[in-house]
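Hi F.,

I've been meaning to write this up properly since the lab meeting, where we talked about keeping a consistent format for the predictions we share between groups. The idea is simple: the sequence comes first, exactly as it goes in, then the structure tokens exactly as they come out, then a line or two of notes. No screenshots and no reformatting. I'm using this chain as the first example so we have something concrete to point to.
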Amino acid sequence: MSLYLESHGSGPALVLIHGWGLHGGIWAALVEALRDRWRVISVDLPGHGRSAPLDGPYTLDAISSAVAAAVPDEAAWLGWSLGGRVALAAAARGKAITRLLLVGTTPRFIRGDDWPHAMPAAELQQFADALRDDWEGTLQRFLALQARGSQKARDELRALREGLFAHGAPQPQALAGGLDILRSADLRALLPAITQPALVVHGSRDTLAPPAAAEYLATTLPHGRLALIEGAGHAPFLSHPEAFLAALRGFLDE
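Output, unedited:
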């Protein structure tokens, strides 16, 4: 299958991967800020935005393989939320990634007996159940969860909602498949083998993926470090762009 990509600027390649239900257009401001020194490649995940759905099951391996086949080797990858999990999976599968930037990313999205740093499984199941009857309303509610807790929640939610359908509506089967990945995929066992330099960028007020999950991710990755954005929720690149850019540029320019 072919994925929809947009490429801007010149220089070393930087791949941007969005979160559940959205598309590569969510990175517009970040692309403008980085295109002077980087070839910034934004991706619409399968079944999202302008990309066709997968031919087979919507799994994390299938998504990460599709993205890896579409973008150049020796690129840095920046993934947000579900996109961060895609980046981790691609790195674990051996894609030639130079650096990882993981935004609002957690190795396990729902709580377990040994994993308290997540949302209850029942809450995510409610979204999955509601998705069958009203996928658009369910997606809007999920956006509200992403902004919850942020110092600038209202502005953050407005930015998410304004850009939601800019590349077209996501495919319902892709939404359902993405939620299933969030529910079932546990990436903790993969982390020690991912050796790229990794920056974990996380909002201090993220209620969807608590900061403790980011601390675990940064300390378990062999070359990970944490940049906590004070006052931000799940989308710090929207709510606190200056602090977010400072963290990214410092890491990318090393």
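Notes:
The two ends are 35 Å apart (CA to CA).
The chain has one domain: 5-252.

If this format works for you, I'll send the rest the same way.

G.
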